[in-house]
Design brief:
135 residues, mainly beta, four-stranded antiparallel beta sheet, 0% helix, globular
Length: 135
């Protein structure tokens, strides 16, 4: 969060795996959400930023050069009223909460999946799973 004005940097979602993490931040003013996310690593008792970017996305980021593995992260804003997201990747279905209108789903210690990326299948809105609209 270093480098961002305190008033314009709010943590919306975090997933940790050992000394590695992935965080989604809102770096916009109060009246305009601007998502910014990336990897973090615990170094000497503090968290240091790694690779990051803006806008909701799905991608892979190298976190361990020696083993050539990283994190696959899918994150973005959810539709109004959503309280959970359902994601599909390689035949696996995962569900994750939506908090503050944002979701984050990660897979750790993964080799680069090349073009095989997770996709949002549906959102739970009002207790019902509603198919996601493809952009």
């Amino acid at each position: 969060m270093q480098g961002f004005p305190v008033a314009h940097c709010r943590v919306l979602a975090v997933d940790l795996s050992g000394e590695d993490g992935f965080a989604v931040l809102d770096t916009g003013p109060e009246d305009y959400r601007y998502l910014y996310a990336g990897t973090v690593k615990c170094v000497d008792g503090g968290w240091v930023g790694g690779s990051d970017g803006n806008g909701g996305t799905v991608g892979w980021t190298l976190t361990d050069r020696e083993r050539e593995v990283g994190v696959v992260a899918l994150w973005d804003e959810a539709p109004p009223g959503a309280d959970a997201v359902r994601v599909v990747w390689r035949g696996e279905v995962r569900e994750a909460p939506v908090r503050d209108g944002v979701y984050l789903v990660t897979w750790w210690r993964e080799p680069d999946p090349k073009d095989a990326r997770p996709r949002v299948a549906s959102f739970r809105i009002g207790g019902r799973w509603v198919p996601a609209v493809r952009r």
